[in-house]
Amino acid sequence: MISISHTLRKLTRQIEPAFYIAPSFVVMAVILIYPLGYSLWLSFHRWTLRTFKQGIPFIGFENYQQLFSNPEFWNSLRITFTFVFLAITIEFVLGMGLALLLNHDLKAKGLIRSFILLPMMCTNVVIGLTWRLLFNYEFGIINYYLTQLGFGPVEWLSSPKIALWSVILVDVWNTTSFVALMLLAGLQSLPEEPFEAARIDGANSVQTFFYLTLPLLRQTILVALLWRLIDTFRIFDVVYLLTAGGPARSTETVSIYIYRYGFQAFNLGFASAASYMMIVIMLLIAGILARAIGRSETV
Questions:
Q1: pTM of the model
Q2: Closest Cα to residue 82, out of 165, 20, 139, 142?
Q3: CATH number at residue 279
């Protein structure tokens, strides 16, 4: 009898932690697992606003076949990759410059860091609406000062050749400070001995940066790139508020493309298929970067 009660107490202690974390798993299942599972189920069915009352028939991979044969999807994918590559490249270059600058002993360094953090304190909705006013062709303050300097007004958001660059400019303004802070944290954690040895050997600042700083910062750089890749690839609110994917779909990212089919055309089956293709692409790229981070830790 004693052994049975002892076994029960031991079993209770073992499963007790599960009772504490069970509510968290229930919440995750409700707000994450169920929507993902339902959208995956929808991607193999036809659900449109006009026909869903008659039923939601199973159509297999038809939504995916239509997606791959749709040139608008490939155009949105091309725009998304272009946006991600250009935005992250510019943010990394500017962020590295700011991090190297702040890594030195400067006067009012704390004040400079506070100013750098200001864009991160604004919500994306406020940022999108503010920059939309700044980019306004007739009444925007940017075109006003360009006119005062003798330049003509620029169609920042209405020209297919310039609109994507305008969106990239807003994203760079918004998130360069985040990249700079991550790189600054990495710089301040680097050991001093290799840099002292490099100075003794006569290495200049350029050689020290390319042969010491960058290799030692490899893991921090990969983490920053992974974070920014996920955040940039799924960007929606800023682009929607600035251009809504226009003009002529020149800024239509994959998120805007999915929104157009899911919440404007109400073709939820097709939109779910596009969403899962977006998730698969993100997971593949994130997996490659995550493996690179793991290799850098073992080295």
A1: 0.86
A2: 165
A3: 1.10.3720.10
